[in-house]
Amino acid sequence: MGVGLLISLLPVLLLWKHGQRPVWIADSDELLYLAVAGQSYFDHPWHLADPILQGHSGRSMFPWLQFAPGILPASYLHLGPLAISFFWRAFAGVSMALGIFLVLWKVIRRPWLAAACTIWMLSDAGIVTGQPLFQQLAAMRKLASAGGDYTIAGEPQIMRLWRIITPGLSLVYLLTFLFALLHLRASRSWRSTVFAGAAFGLLFYVYFYYWTAAGVALLICAVLDKGHRRLHILTGLIGGLIGAPAILSGFLLKSSNGRDWLERTDNFVPIPHLSQQLWFIIPDGLLIFSLVWVIARRRDLLPVWALAFSGMILANHQILTGLQIQNYHYLYVFGPIFSVLVMSAFAAAAGYLAKWQPMLVKCCVTGLCAGSFFSGLWLRAAEAEKTAVPLMLQADLKQYESQRDSGSGDPVSRLAPDSVIAGDPMFQDLAAILEDQRPLTHYAMLFSPPISNLEWDRRDALNAYLTGQTVEEFVIHQGEFFQSLVYGPTVNDPSARARRIESRENEFREIARDPETALRDFKVRYIALATGGQLPSAVAAKFDVLQNGAGWTIWERKPAGAATPAKP
After folding, report:
1. Torsion angle of alpha carbons 156, 158, 164, 168, nearest 10°?
2. How far is it, in rounded angstroms, from Cα 368 to Cα 389?
3. How many other β-carbons are positioned within 10 Å of the β-carbon of residue 380?
4. Mind listing the pLDDT tens digit for each residue in 124-170?
5. How much is the pTM?
6. Alpha helix segments (H runs only) across 406-491
7. Rg (CA), the chain
8. How far apart are CA 547 and CA 400, in angstroms?
9. Which of the 8 DSSP states describes residue 267?
10. Strands 552-557 and 267-270
11. What is the tens place of the pLDDT at every residue in 5-41?
12. How many CB atoms sit inside 10 A of residue 277's CB?
């Protein structure tokens, strides 16, 4: 657990060491999660709401149980919304380390060897894709060849096991289910059956991809493990009963808000059966052939094999179902569980060789474990200090806090909670987290069930108008936006992309003719632009400058009836 904490919190510790505030935001996804969690922190820590809608209304598509380990301690200790990120990483370090160790201890039965393999997994860059050691060496070679001062483009992609939220805050629940299944097979008692069923049922409240993969794994075990078939069926029934309310809740969410949000997030979208396949030839081949070893020599590993196999086939379930449900997320099942199987095979080989050379085997295992640990620390440090996106986010956060904290004693300068803010996207991101604002447009819009595509188009058009874009600039920017978008029909369908751009252009032109109606419809109270920016003349008279800071100028809408005519 100490190793897990160190690797998970290393980016925060490095910032603290350099005298900076120990807050590390990794990527745009984490900004989204913090926007959801920030609203919960301020107003309702025991449930989540849509981060876009006022009045804390609208149900979030994300499960509360994943967010809770950060929200609850930060809220009850009154440490501020940014502390959520710290507690998330602390929970990830402790929970994944403990979960991996317990599963490996269950299948290896040598505590020292299970601990060594756990440290290997926690430190390895290839665990999520099921390629331990090889991907670690490839990442080390790539960074070593960069030499000197360099910047890694994009978002952190090396130590994917520590990504927030998945798998950092959710993998422990899958590992708990696997441990319970292994324990059930060994004990065959009613108590173990209930434990396994409860662990399965809990997955329904954590992560769609985990409970579906676990359900398929139980079916595989029931088919291949005849002596334990009844236990696996009972486990599935108990878990299904526990998880039934979550299934019903998800069905109601899916059916109550139209299909726009499902289509734009690639959820339950029909696609060609043989398209978008995701295979890792060597790991997949090894997994298939390992069934012979499992059946012949290690039937106790059948639950591990079944869960890894279910993750592999479900990543490509469109071959049978013809559906896209962000199928690549099943890698978060396949990779870590296949890596557990690899560690089991490694431990079996080490145990066999230890019969003749016990000291040599211990030295080799210790050396491999130490090498993985120190190289993992190096890769994690490079990812934390050299990756472009978190470096940019740190600079923006520092600028935001410097400007907003400078007026903390002036009540006028504080933004009224649950207000709609427009303008600079980064200011909207940070205000949503730190000042309980509802952004006019945000990455969260993509995942907001109540918001239709037309409303999304109108919100983006209004925000672009307020930031001073012309219609020509707006059309160009929207073409670039949809070109880079990774979800939805606009990714692979040029005609769908053209229709969305046309819709947004039409909304922009309508807003330019009558901006007041759009401002009133979306209840925009604040606008923040980078310092030096100016509001469009048609709306400038309706806003007063609230703060003119080094990073942004913030305007607040005047009370009704107080606006003066704009100068010609």
Report:
1. -170
2. 32
3. 23
4. 999 999 999 999 999 999 998 987 788 899 999 999 999 999 999 99
5. 0.94
6. 425-434, 453-466, 471-484
7. 26
8. 12
9. E
10. unpaired
11. 999 999 999 999 998 889 999 999 999 999 999 999 9
12. 11
